[in-house]
Amino acid sequence: ETPSGTSAGATPNAENVDSATVSPAGAEAPVRAGERAYQRVRLAAERDVAEGRYRQALAKLSIFYRSPDLSPTEQAELLDWLDPLAARVIYSRESLLEEAYVVRKNDTLYKVAEAYQVPWQLLQKINGIANPEILVPGTTLKVVRGPFRAEVDLSRSEITVFLGELYAGRFPVTIGQDPSPKPGEYQVRDKQTQRAYYGADNRTIPAGSPLNPYGNVWIDLGNDICIHGSPARDVPAAGTGPSGCIGLSPKDAEDLFAILSVGSTVKIRP
């Protein structure tokens, strides 16, 4: 299973992309006078896809993600390309970024992931590994060289992840008020799957409780700011907004936990 966002067309769900599936409807509409850079690059990326150069196509188009020069229609068209391209290049089992890794004697997924600076859970999801401690020498693994970084857009209520300069997916988020996240640049300091919740109203909700606003994922950014999962059922509101800070659905939180490493940069934008 590959990581998956839940926004419309979110990146990590699609397994395959080719010139037929990524060409959005109307993509061949006449280009306006004074052909813009995006349209030229999009046509070049379309040729890349037709010839199987998926990584090159993703690299070309990633430059234009959230570009202010693009119209809303062009932004939507761009995402129709970026999401399935990122799914294939980064999260599928095809080795389109690095040569496949050949497992050696005494290797574990933990050791391989550490060498490539990504969480072992990401390689486990991509490769369908049941036991991260048991790898068969001589078999191959899809590897991705990290670390990933992320940007939180408060106005859009969305997290976007990047691998270097490559667009790598997006997830919808809920912005909480306990505390409200402040714009700035942060780093992942810690990651936990079981974290007690300590509210500003002096509530304490133990880890594992179905009422815990963090769910089963807590990613610490420092300064009381965190990215987290969601409770198994609604938490009674003690204030005026959602509990927690930057919340994701349980599935998206699990996926993001597998993407971001301790030390990953997270930029929060207004």
Model description:
By secondary structure, the chain is an alpha+beta fold. 27% of the residues lie in helices and 19% in strands. It is built from seven helices and 14 strands. A five-stranded mixed sheet has the order 5-4-3-14-7. Helix 3 (54-62) packs antiparallel against helix 4 and helix 6 packs across helix 7 (250-259). The longest helix is centred in the first third of the chain and has 20 residues, at 72-91. Residues 1-16, 19-35 and 235-241 have low confidence and may be disordered.
Strand element count? 14
End-to-end distance, in Å?
Answer: 33 Å
Mean pLDDT equals 87
Number of separate structural domains: 3
* Count of helix runs: 7
CATH architecture of the largest domain: Beta Barrel
Note the overall shape: flat
CATH class of the largest domain: Mainly Beta
Low-pLDDT ranges: 1-16, 19-35, 235-241
CATH topology of the largest domain: L,D-transpeptidase catalytic domain-like
Classified in CATH, the superfamily of the largest domain is: L,D-transpeptidase catalytic domain-like
Main sheet characteristics: 5 strands, mixed
* Cα Rg: 20 Å
- Helix share of residues? 25-40%
Give me the side-by-side strand order of the main sheet. Answer: 5-4-3-14-7
Helix and strand pattern: HHHHEHHEEEEEEEEEEEEHE
Q: Could you say which structural class the secondary elements and strand pairing correspond to?
A: alpha+beta
The amount of beta strand, in percent, is: 15-25%
